[in-house]
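ligand=coenzyme A
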Amino acid sequence: MSRFSRSIAVRRVRADEWPAVRALRMESTSDPDATVAFLERPEEVAARPDEFWIERTRIAAASDSAATFVATLDDHWIGALTVIVRQEGSTDHLGRPVAERRADVVGVYVRRSARGRGAVDQLIATAARWVSAQGLASVTLDVHRDNGRARAAYRRVGFRPTGIVTTSAIGDEIGMELALTPPDSEPDDTSAAGMVPT
Ligand SMILES: CC(C)(COP(=O)(O)OP(=O)(O)OC[C@H]1O[C@@H](n2cnc3c(N)ncnc32)[C@H](O)[C@@H]1OP(=O)(O)O)[C@@H](O)C(=O)NCCC(=O)NCCS
């Protein structure tokens, strides 16, 4: 079977889907792999008020500063990720100063029952197209040194180590970057197009 299963669809989250965003975040931070994947703990997620999720999802659904994409299978959510456009002079999720406008992928999660089916490839491809449309030439992320599965998936879709390693609250995080082609030169297909390995 192709990695790019036709039955998996990826789309941007809608503002009214904040309860599902919260539920998936609760599930992902409770996952056995969460200790090498997410800075937030489930008890911190549970303590956030509804207003937090409403506002986060509103921005992720319609702004140019962040976008959450969800992967669905038969209309059920099977995974998600968020892209955040960092502005020069701001501080990122690992507390680092941002020297230059860039896009970071965070919160990547595929439900256990759906892993190994290409959802992460489709999520990254969709995120990459959105980042290209924001006028950026690459997208970056940080992945825990011991998260072998995520590292292998990112490498497969074209991410390469930047050489930057940052020690976060959960350990050493390896910086990875995916170079993008401009939107008007992308091939017209549903693969991980728009990505040029560095
Ligand atoms: C990371 C994640 C999104 C990847 O999605 P996925 O559907 O599991 O990924 P895939 O199965 O397509 O690819 C995983 C790759 O890792 C490999 N792999 C599996 N287990 C592995 C391990 N323990 N160590 C190293 N590689 C491993 C697989 O063989 C595959 O590589 P290949 O395509 O070269 O064969 C998903 O596993 C997940 O949600 N994990 C928990 C949360 C998480 O870690 N998020 C990332 C935070 S940076």
